[in-house]
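Re-run with default settings, no changes from the original entry. Doing this only to confirm the output is reproducible before filing.
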Amino acid sequence: MVTTLDVQLNPAQSGWPELRDMALAAEAAGYGAVWVYDHLAGASIGGDTMLETFSFLGALAVCTSTIELGTLVVNVNNRSPGLLAVAAASIVAISGRPLHLGLGAGTSPTSRWAAEMHAVGQPIIETIAGRHAQLGAVLDVLDRVYDPHRPPELATFPLPVPRPVVIVGVNSVALATLAGARADGINVEWAGRRRDELLAAARAARGDRPGFLLTVWAYWSPDLVDPDSVERRAMAQCGIDRLVLVVPVGVGSTELGRPLPVG
């Protein structure tokens, strides 16, 4: 099995011109997709600025031509389900390419990730069960709005073709189970200590239904770019479909523009 190699760009640490050049370099080198964060402020991911997720994707959709696009992950508490559905469909319409719609249940009010939301008075659902329920509500709306046989009141909402592939970023068995039962795939940290447990939970919830995508993220390194490296071979043996490489500070268009080795 060949694991598709993607990149995730950090708009907290790089300006638009550099981000554009990195995306174009990744496209030319043969990466499968470019993914973006969903944060309100740069401090959450080590920087001093930010670009809004779907605005950023819209710009990438116009400046690139073949590379696929993705979000890792959209916080389902930042937008209403309907707005999220229309935003994702708009990116498909603009790009004419597949969108990997990574969703996350969001953070707790007491975590360090919550500071950006507290700063602007953004409500945060207090309980884990409530946040998981909100993610389920988003999935319900996506199913309704993206259904080719949807009811008349939804007839003029944008209908994305192809439909976005919904990937749920997880860090708990409960969320992995929800992803397996309701979504098209799962994303976990490759180096995370609960990786195998989470992947197994999603697989179990998925059952014998085909087409479920196993995706992982890790920080970009020359070793992980090499399909013959120990880690990449382990990913292939684990059945990982996509590896999203988070681009760290110091890695730019020169590194990303090197043609990917063929495995």
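The first strand starts at residue 4 and ends at 9. Residues 30-219 form a domain with the TIM Barrel fold (CATH 3.20.20.30).
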